[in-house]
Specification:
heterodimer; A: 224 residues; mainly alpha; MetI-like fold; B: 280 residues; alpha/beta; D-Maltodextrin-Binding Protein, domain 2; 2 domains; 12 helices; 10 strands
C-alpha cells in the first residue's frame, strides 16, 4: 500500500476543511433558526432535519452533475479534484451541524435570552454567550459533522474519482482494496481510519468535558 | 397459547416452504464488471433461469476480487477474462472445468483532439498506421493524460502488460491517473479529463453516448479479451452448488447461450459486443 501517508493526510485535510466550512454555515444558521420566530420556521427545521439524513451518494450525484464539464459549473474545472470532495462533504455536514446547533440553542432556558438582553448585552454578545453556554452540545454537533464526512465514501468516489495521489481518501482506498480482494490491506486501512477518528473525537471530548467541570454552572453571562 | 403456537407453526411452515427450494436453486456467479456494465448478463441470466430454474445471485467485481471470492469458496461459478490469473487459480486447486466462452477486444479511446496522434485515417494517411507499441509510445512521449483502472482487474492487468510490451513504465508520471474504479467510472473520468484509456469495446459502446471519447486505436492480436467460465472446486469447498455451476457452464457454452452472446448488442449498437468461442 503506497502513499498511505498522503491518503490519510488528504482525508483529514478534506474532511477537516469541510467540517470547518459546515460549522461556519451551520452555527449561525442553526442559531438563527433556534432564536427566530417567523413563518416557515418549522418547515425549514424539518428540511434541515431531513438533510441530516442526506445519503452521501445523492449529494455526490448532484454535486457531480453540477461540476461535470457539461454541467452549469463545469467551467470551474473542479470535478475530480479535492475541492470537489470538500464541496460535497460540506453539503453533507452542514445540515448535521445546523440541525444539532438549533437543537442545542433551543434546549437552553428561554429566560436566559431575556435576561442577557435585560442586562444590556448586544445581540451579538447575547449569541456569543448562548454559544458558550451550549458549548457541550455544540461540540457534539461538531463531532457529528466530522464523523459524517470522514466516514463517507459515496460522494468522495463520485466527485473525487478515487484518483491515486490526487483524490484518493481513506474510505475510497478501503473500497478499492476490497474490490482488489486485498482484504488485509482493507482491514488495515479501516483500523487506521477508526483510530484517527477516535483520536480526533477523544481530543474534542476532552475539550468538551474540561469545559464542563470548570464553569458550566457559574456561566459567564452572570459576570456581565 | 394454542393460537399463538399454531400461528408460529404456520409461520415456520411458510419460512421452510420459502427457504427449502431456494437453497438448492440459488447459484452465486462472480463476474467481472464488464459483463454487467455492458448489459450482457441482463440478457443471459433470465434465459438461464428460464431454462434451468436456477436463480443467479450476481456479484460483479474486478477480476482480482472475483478470484479472491472464489478462493474463499464464496462463489459457485466464475466468469472472467484474466487468462494468466485463471490458470494459476486452477493450478492452485481452487477451480475446475475451465471452458472458453467468448471474446471481445480492447480498444484505446481518447479525446477527439487526439493529442498523441493515434488516429489513423486510411484515406488521408500522412503517416503509417501506428502499431500497438508506437501507440503507447506516443502517449508516453507526448505525456498525454492517461486514465488507468488501477484496480488489478483483467483490464488493468492487460494495460500493464501492454505498457511492458512497449518497454515503458508510466507509474508515478503526473499524466498517469489511477482511478481504482470500474470501467464505466473510468471512462467518465477519462472523458472529463480529456484523457486516453484502455477499455473493452463492449463497455465503451455501452457508454459511448455519455462520454466524449472516440476509439483511436484498435485491431491488434494483443488486444483480444478472452472470457472463460470456471467452476469453484467442490473438493475444496464441499458446500458449493456444483450442479448449478455445471448447469451455468453448460448453458453459457450451449448453442442457445452462444446465440444470445452473438446477438447481444447488435440491435442497439449495430455491431455485436461479444463473439462466441465455445465448441458447441
Amino acid at each position: 500500500m503506497t502513499g498511505i501517508f498522503e491518503i490519510t493526510f488528504l482525508s483529514l485535510q478534506v474532511s477537516g476543511i469541510a467540517t470547518i466550512l459546515s460549522l461556519m454555515i451551520g452555527l449561525p444558521f442553526g442559531t438563527w433558526l433556534a432564536l427566530g420566530n417567523f413563518r416557515g420556521r418549522s418547515f425549514i427545521l424539518s428540511i434541515i432535519n431531513t438533510g441530516m439524513a442526506l445519503p452521501p451518494v445523492v449529494v455526490g450525484l448532484v454535486v457531480a452533475m453540477m461540476l461535470w464539464r457539461s454541467g452549469p459549473l463545469g467551467d470551474l474545472r473542479l470535478i475530480y479534484t479535492p475541492i470537489a470532495i470538500i464541496i460535497a462533504q460540506t453539503v453533507i455536514a452542514a445540515p448535521v451541524v445546523t440541525g444539532l446547533t438549533a437543537a442545542a440553542i433551543e434546549a437552553l432556558d428561554p429566560r436566559l435570552q431575556q435576561q442577557l438582553l435585560g442586562l444590556g448585552a448586544s445581540r451579538g454578545q447575547m449569541v456569543w454567550y448562548l454559544w458558550r453556554e451550549a458549548r457541550l452540545p455544540l461540540l457534539a454537533a461538531l463531532m457529528a459533522g466530522f464523523g459524517s464526512v470522514i466516514s463517507e465514501v459515496g460522494a468522495s468516489t463520485m466527485v473525487g474519482g478515487n484518483i491515486r495521489g490526487q483524490t484518493r481518501v481513506l474510505t475510497t482506498a478501503i473500497v478499492l482494496e476490497t474490490s482488489k480482494g486485498e482484504f488485509d490491506q482493507a482491514l488495515a486501512l479501516s483500523a487506521l481510519l477508526l483510530i484517527i477518528t477516535y483520536l480526533i473525537n477523544l481530543a474534542l471530548t476532552w475539550i468538551q468535558q474540561r469545559g464542563r467541570k470548570g464553569d458550566y454552572q457559574s456561566a459567564s453571562w452572570r459576570s456581565l | 397459547m394454542k393460537k399463538l403456537s399454531s400461528l408460529l407453526m404456520v409461520a415456520l411452515l411458510l419460512i421452510s416452504c420459502n427457504a427449502q427450494p431456494s437453497r438448492t436453486q440459488d447459484l452465486i456467479l462472480v463476474s467481472t464488471t464488464s459483463t454487467q456494465d455492458s448489459g450482457l448478463l441482463d440478457a443471459l441470466l433470465p434465459a438461464f433461469t428460464a431454462e434451468t430454474g436456477y436463480q443467479v445471485q450476481l456479484i460483479a467485481v474486478g477480476s482480482g476480487q472475483a478470484l479472491k471470492i472464489g478462493k474463499m469458496g464464496n462463489a459457485d461459478v466464475i466468469l472472467l477474462h484474466s487468462p494468466e490469473a485463471e490458470k494459476k487459480f486452477i493450478a492452485d486447486g481452487f477451480g475446475i472445468d475451465r471452458r472458453l466462452v467468448m471474446h471481445n477486444d480492447f480498444v484505446i479511446v481518447g479525446p477527439p483532439s487526439d493529442p498523441a496522434s493515434l488516429r489513423f485515417d486510411k484515406l488521408n494517411a500522412s503517416h503509417s498506421k501506428p502499431t500497438l507499441v508506437s501507440a503507447f509510445g506516443s502517449i508516453f512521449s507526448s505525456a498525454s493524460t492517461f486514465v488507468s483502472r488501477g484496480d488489478e482487474s483483467g483490464t488493468h492487468i492487460k494495460e500493464l502488460a501492454l505498457w511492458r510490451n512497449a518497454g515503458l513504465d508510466p507509474t508515478g508520471k503526473d499524466w498517469y491517473l489511477e482511478t481504482g474504479q470500474g470501467q464505466g467510472a473510468t471512462l467518465s473520468i477519462a472523458s472529463e479529463k480529456g484523457a486516453y484509456a484502455l477499455t473493452d469495446r463492449a463497455t465503451y459502446l455501452a457508454y459511448k453516448s455519455n462520454v466524449n471519447l472516440q476509439i483511436l486505436f484498435e485491431d491488434d492480436p494483443l488486444l483480444l479479451n478472452v472470457y472463460h467460465v470456471i467452476t469453484v472446486n467442490p473438493e475444496k469447498f464441499p458446500n458449493i452448488n456444483l450442479a448449478g455451476a455445471k448447469a451455468f457452464a453448460d448453458f453459457i457454452t450451449s448453442p442457445q447461450g452462444q446465440k444470445i452472446i452473438a446477438e447481444f448488442g447488435v440491435e442497439k449498437y449495430g455491431e455485436p459486443l461479444f463473439f462466441p468461442d465455445a465448441d458447441t
